[in-house]
Structure prediction request, 111 residues.
Amino acid sequence: MTVAVDDDLWSAIGDPTRRKLLDLLLAGTAGTATSLSDELPVTRQAVAKHLGVLDRVGLVHATPAGREKRYRVDQDQLGRAVAQLNAVGDTWDARLQRIKRIAESIQETND
Prediction:
């Protein structure tokens, strides 16, 4: 099965601060930029910007909570990201197996 890789999604996940935000949200149920910034060495404004990136790619969704927004991980989008990562891993496993077979064939020819 071929899964199309979403470059914007992986660009968003590629940032270590955004991965930590996802970890924090997955460990709890939801969080605001303020509550999440308490767990990170960055400002509330930086956290809000990172959450905006995650929201644009659909990994989190915001709901109003007073003067702030409460963010939750979108489990479906996270599942698509996992499927994409697995597909890329499977592709590279197959490529490495082909390289191994070629190297073994060359080794056998030289023996």
Q: What stands out?
A: The radius of gyration is 20 Å.
